[in-house]
């Protein structure tokens, strides 16, 4: 019986690990989530996105948008106007990332404050040692 429980626990662990790896595979890199967050305020054209997502190169943005479109998070809309207008928008499926993005935002805020607090503490300790 114990061996079966061990196998079951290993299977669940393996399944959980696979699920996390799948999610990271789809959302890997430093740009995908910022692009999704940028589009959450509404449709944007390529140049608008590039201005919103600071520091991203045009070639990288193009590649990331193609991958996001391939994975069903972004829709590329082409308007037959002169000049041709192309907009990017989030799909309904991208809403499934809401809890993930909110959790990352909350954790990122907490982590940043932790690091700042540690730096303040070290600075105060150094100042106290220097004052002695």
Oligomeric nature of the chains: single chain
CATH superfamily of the largest domain: Winged helix-like DNA-binding domain superfamily/Winged helix DNA-binding domain
Name of the CATH class of the largest domain: Mainly Alpha
- Number of β-strand runs: 3
Averaged pLDDT: 90
Radius of gyration: 22 Å
Characterize the main sheet.
Answer: 3 strands, antiparallel
Mind telling me which CATH architecture of the largest domain this is? Orthogonal Bundle
- Taken as a percent bin, the fraction of beta residues is 5-15%
- Poorly predicted ranges: none
Shape: flat
Would you give the CATH topology of the largest domain?
A: Arc Repressor Mutant, subunit A
Instruction: Report the structural category.
Output: mainly alpha
What spatial order of strands do you see in the largest sheet?
Answer: 1-3-2
SSE run: HHEHHEEH
The portion of residues assigned to helices is 55-70%
Whole-number count of domains: 2
Written overview of the protein:
The longest helix is centred in the last third of the chain and has 34 residues, at 98-131. This protein is mainly alpha-helical. It contains 5 helices and 3 strands; from the N terminus they run ααβααββα. The protein starts with a helix and ends with a helix.
Layout of strands and helices, then pairs:
Blueprint: H1 2-27, H2 32-39, E1 44-45, H3 46-52, H4 58-70, E2 74-79, E3 85-90, H5 98-131
Antiparallel strand pairs: 1-3, 2-3
InterPro entries: HTH_HxlR, WH-like_DNA-bd_sf, WH_DNA-bd_sf
Pfam families: HxlR
GO molecular function: DNA binding
């Amino acid at each position: 019986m114990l061996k079966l429980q061990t196998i079951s626990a290993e299977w669940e662990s393996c399944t959980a690990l696979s699920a996390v790896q799948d999610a990271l595979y789809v959302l890997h890199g430093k740009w995908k989530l910022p692009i999704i967050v940028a589009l959450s305020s509404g449709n944007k054209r390529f140049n608008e996105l590039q201005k919103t997502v600071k520091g991203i190169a045009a070639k990288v943005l193009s590649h990331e948008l193609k991958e996001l479109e391939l994975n069903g998070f972004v829709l590329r809309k082409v308007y037959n106007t002169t000049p041709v207008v192309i907009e990017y928008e989030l799909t309904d499926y991208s809403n499934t990332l809401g809890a993930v993005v909110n959790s990352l935002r909350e954790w990122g805020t907490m982590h940043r404050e932790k690091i700042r607090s540690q730096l303040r503490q070290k600075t105060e300790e150094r100042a106290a040692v220097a004052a002695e």
